[in-house]
Amino acid sequence: MSTLDRTDELVTPLTATAAASGAQASASFRTNEVYSGATADVSTERVHTVARAVLKAVHAVIEEHEVSYPEFQAAKKWLMDVGEFGEWPLFLDVFVEHAVEEVASKAQHGTKGTILGPYYLPGQAQLASPATLPSRAEEVGTPLLFTGRVTDLDGNPLAGATLDIWHADSDGLYSGFAPGIPDGNLRGVVSTDADGRFEIHTIEPAPYQIPTDGPTGALIRAAGWSAWRPAHLHLLVGAPGHRTVTTQLYFAGGEHLENDVAEATKPELVLNPVQTPSGERVAEYDFVLERA
Ligand code: MBD
Ligand code: FE
Residue limits of the Intradiol ring-cleavage dioxygenases domain (predicted)? Predict the structure, then answer.
């Protein structure tokens, strides 16, 4: 495992660093309600059962692979680095959250969910449909019209449903977590019209690469894994009286779709955008919400 120099500058203006985005993601995790459960009251019995099972699994790996003292100490250093770089939200959402989501989704109906990830921020601009997400005057990227309907399980339109949408820019960077991008860029909360329809104008995001200058990137490099997620839109889709769906939508034919490092793709969550004469690509998707 490669060694990381913790004395690297923590924040270089206008350069995205693992430590800076990790600090933002950690602060967001601690303050934003969407991650609540962080304060969940868990019984002694349950902590005993799950924590003991985790430790037993670790012991089994050490025994099976005859992990040595130097390897144990290198792993300890790496775990300390993940904490110091604020990369626990990133690491856990990339490598673990999909398993938790798969358990949760067993009892769910309607549009498939997938992982939330570390880059959600609440309180974005409220926009009526048709809407255009806030973007920079110089925003680069293929124009995208994302459109569709929100209905209940019986196909009845849900007027006043909300799509809380956020996505990376054409460099794969998120506002609020990378320097030099205005707050709220490529984020918004869009309400459906009387027929449950929405129209959202934005640009196509680029694939996302795990930061290469932090401990998560170091592990990925040391293990020879891919550091990429396919391009995606993040969404929280909700309506009064209905369960909010946390999901992501991907792009057919896009890079990394078959080997998402976060294992968060599902065949039902792939958009098939069509080219229009104006140069804008149009992607349609209908959401189905179950009652809360
Ligand atoms: C992302 O953009 C993301 O969506 C997830 C789940 C993890 C890391 C970065
Ligand atoms: Fe993402």
Answer: 146-174
CA distance 194 to 159: 5
Q: What CATH number did the domain enclosing 281 receive?
A: 2.60.130.10
Alpha-carbon 41 to chain mean position: 25
Ligand closest to 216 (CA) is: 1
**How confident is the model at residue 41, as a pLDDT?**
82
Task: Record the pTM.
Answer: 0.93
Q: Is 176 in the pocket of ligand 1 (CB under 6 A)?
A: no
Q: Give the residue from 92, 101, 36, 134 showing the smallest Cα distance to 246.
A: 101
CB of residue 121 inside a 6 A radius of ligand 1: no
Overall number of domains in the chain: 1
* For the CA of 25, the nearest ligand: 1
Cα of 214 from ligand 2 centre, angstroms: 18
Specify the residue with its C-alpha closest to ligand 1, atom 3. 117
- Give the 3-state secondary structure of residue 17: coil
Q: How far apart are CA 150 and CA 193, in angstroms?
A: 10
Distance CA 117, CA 39 (A): 18
120-177 pLDDT, tens digit each: 999 999 999 999 999 999 999 999 999 999 999 999 999 999 999 999 999 999 999 9
Tokens of 250: 């991907």
Domain of residue 42: give its range: 3-289
Residue range 45-65: mean pLDDT, rounded: 97
Output the pLDDT for position 1: 39
